[in-house]
Amino acid sequence: DVSGSITNLQDPILNIIAKIDGNLKDIESITNEMKDIKMKGPVFVCMTVKGKMKNPSFFGEYNVRNAYINGIGLAKPITNFNIKGTIHGDAARIDKCSGNIGRSDFSFNGHISNFKQPVIQINNKSKTIDLDELIPKSEGHKKEKAKPVPIMIQGKTRINTLTGLDMVFKNVNTNFTYEKGIIDIRNCIADAFDGKVKFDFYHNANNPEPYSITTNMTSISSKKILKRFLKFENLEGRLTGVSNFDGRGLSQKEVISNLTASGNLTVKNGAFKNF
Fold first, then answer.
1. Which of 53, 195, 209, 273 could form an S-S bond across to 248 if both were Cys, CB 3.0 to 4.6 Å?
2. Which value, to the nearest 10 degrees, does the dihedral of the CA atoms of residues 169, 173, 178, 184 take?
3. Which domain range does residue 47 map to?
4. Structurally, how many domains does the chain consist of?
5. Which residues does the UniProt record annotate as the domain AsmA (predicted)?
6. pTM as predicted
């Protein structure tokens, strides 16, 4: 639906309002980079174009409701996706965006710049994030993978409960970047293993091994963390220190076989039990 006027045909001046009421499915293959992405859900856009045809200005609003998106480098699709905001030129404001990835949820606001290679800056709040439903599992056999969508998402997030890889973190606050299948978490602070942890985590879903984790632990349970990573639960006490890990895989078997670690750790009130 298009309405408006064009004046001064020698040097046209536009005053046009365009309304689009469609479906995300109509644009899922709009570029070669998006050909592996599957989307559906109603989308509404109302745009105003004003000014000279040589250099017009664009502004308006957009709204997507209850959408489905799959094929962007995550282990599970995004469902119940809702977003609304405004557009001005080559940038957009996100007033509210929410959805689910499996049992994980997100709700954020922010802004988008450079629509050709989008950069999305957000502030997110989540009740639950399950890493097992975000990070694709590496397959023993080779298979053609969908190309991650060419966008960068960066910002801050607060998570009540972060689970995955047989671990549970509470009250998580972190900075993060997601770009073309690469997850880079920086300055993450959380409650875990009955203590406080601060860590950085880097994971490349396109070439998932090796990963790297840098940790700073304060008075955590020696038994719980050693049981999780090394299947060793005979050391009681409180563990404090800095450590760096590089490895292949995060199951107990893979950790024991492939983990390389360095750092300085102190155990207080330590005691071996049933050893």
1. 209
2. -70
3. 2-154
4. 1
5. 159-273
6. 0.76
